[in-house]
């Protein structure tokens, strides 16, 4: 393992499940003059009919010297895209885009959704030394930036990593956002790592979606014992990904099934609701065990109460839960997606070593983005929904 300078920080040097592969390419992405580009945009928040294909979206430009322009070959859908389309988190994300309130009200439109990207770097800012035009890269662009359902996207160099050589762009696009969300929960919130995982017992609630499948693979690559909770029709997938124990929550009450298992060091909750109170009973007390949930009231509170009051209520809620469980010797945490090129570097090494693979449920052509939203909105995902945007050979 080698160490090279990167992103003003230290950089530690570095098969798929496919179903329902789409082949239709009704919309062709071409922009010879590079002044406009095709993209799927929304001009207001709402249901699926607000999605609009626009061939004349202004070509993105580099505003900061640490940014790159990426030609998008593939992107993928995440639940946050459906939620953002409907307006969830609009107040918080608008503030993140314009913290000084310089722009006018409603200036987030037209808004391009999409967080994952796998593609080719076309242009680099003046301070970018680690990447160059022509490099094949992947990234997860944060929600406060314009997204990846477009022919080109701008990203900070700190968000970008070299694409694993063993994956196609279509496969690679399925991984960044969900894996970085899992990373944020397990590494940033729980303090897990490849050195600390061996021997740890981890319970994953909601294990068959994108974050769940990513979490299983990351934890197994690091030597943890993983118990996955899902419905019976996801058992084969869970076994293929390496889960040590699988619980079908439909065959008997989850509480009764968990009582027959040893207690856990970490619980990752992708579901929330009543599962939170139930799950907390099954952590090892007075051992530094951690419960982390990705279902938080942060954006909801801000949407309902405004930024100031929403953040105050969120802080009170989190503090009360942290202190309540701290006195039982249990750490209570919230997990949030965090963009990170360096984390993707490590994930890429695991991919090329065969320890993490893409889990793709269906692939849609760029012309069928609304249908992809409909599919994801129907629920019960078994992996990721991917969008083929441009042909990497063109």
TrEMBL record:
Keywords in alphabetical order: Membrane, Mitochondrion, Mitochondrion outer membrane, NADP, Neurogenesis, Nucleotide-binding, Oxidoreductase, Transit peptide, Ubiquinone biosynthesis
Which segments constitute the Enoyl reductase (ER) domain?
46-387
| GO CC, one annotated term | mitochondrial outer membrane
Predominant cellular place of this UniProt entry's protein: mitochondrion
GO BP annotations, alphabetical order? nervous system development; ubiquinone biosynthetic process
> So, what pathway does this thing act in?
Cofactor biosynthesis; ubiquinone biosynthesis
Q: Where in the cell is it found?
A: Mitochondrion matrix; Mitochondrion outer membrane
- Single GO MF descriptor: oxidoreductase activity
Q: Which reaction does it catalyse?
A: 3-demethylubiquinone-10 + NADPH + 2 H(+) = 3-demethylubiquinol-10 + NADP(+); 3-demethylubiquinone-10 + NADH + 2 H(+) = 3-demethylubiquinol-10 + NAD(+); a 3-demethylubiquinone + NADH + 2 H(+) = a 3-demethylubiquinol + NAD(+); a 3-demethylubiquinone + NADPH + 2 H(+) = a 3-demethylubiquinol + NADP(+)
The record's similarity note reads:
Belongs to the zinc-containing alcohol dehydrogenase family. Quinone oxidoreductase subfamily.
Return the protein name: NAD(P)H oxidoreductase RTN4IP1, mitochondrial
């Amino acid at each position: 393992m080698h160490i090279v300078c990167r992103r003003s920080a230290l950089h530690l040097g570095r098969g798929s499940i496919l179903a329902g592969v789409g082949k239709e390419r009704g919309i062709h992405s071409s922009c010879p003059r590079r002044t406009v580009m095709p993209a799927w945009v929304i001009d207001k928040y709402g249901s699926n009919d607000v999605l609009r294909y626009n061939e004349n979206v202004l070509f993105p430009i580099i505003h900061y010297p640490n940014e790159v322009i990426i030609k998008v070959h593939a992107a993928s859908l995440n639940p946050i895209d459906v939620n953002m389309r409907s307006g969830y988190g609009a107040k918080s994300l608008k503030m993140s885009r314009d913290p000084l309130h310089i722009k006018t009200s409603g200036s987030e439109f037209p808004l391009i959704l999409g967080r994952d990207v796998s593609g080719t770097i076309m242009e680099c800012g003046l301070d970018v030394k680690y990447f160059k035009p022509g490099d094949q890269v992947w990234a997860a662009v944060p929600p406060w930036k314009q997204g990846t359902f477009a022919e080109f996207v701008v990203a900070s160099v700190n968000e970008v990593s070299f694409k694993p050589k063993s994956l196609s762009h279509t496969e690679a696009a399925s991984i960044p956002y969900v894996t970085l969300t899992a990373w944020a929960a397990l590494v940033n919130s729980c303090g897990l790592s490849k050195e600390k995982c061996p021997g740890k017992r981890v319970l994953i609630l909601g294990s068959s979606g994108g974050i769940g499948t990513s979490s299983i693979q990351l934890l197994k690559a690091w030597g943890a014992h993983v118990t996955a909770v899902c419905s019976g029709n996801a058992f084969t997938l869970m076994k293929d990904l390496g889960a040590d124990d699988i619980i079908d929550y439909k065959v008997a009450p989850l509480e009764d099934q968990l009582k027959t298992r040893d207690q856990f060091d970490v619980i990752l909750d992708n579901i929330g609701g009543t599962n939170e109170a139930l799950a907390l009973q099954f952590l090892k007390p007075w051992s530094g065990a951690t419960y982390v949930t990705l279902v938080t009231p942060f954006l909801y509170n801000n949407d309902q109460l405004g930024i100031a009051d929403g953040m105050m209520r969120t802080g009170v809620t989190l503090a009360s839960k942290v202190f309540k469980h701290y006195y039982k010797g249990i750490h209570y945490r919230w997990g949030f997606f965090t963009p990170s090129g360096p984390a993707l570097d490590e994930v890429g090494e695991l991919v090329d070593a065969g320890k993490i693979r893409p889990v793709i449920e269906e692939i849609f052509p760029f012309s069928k983005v609304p249908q992809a939203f409909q599919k994801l909105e129907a629920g019960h995902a078994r992996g990721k929904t991917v969008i083929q945007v441009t042909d990497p050979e063109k």
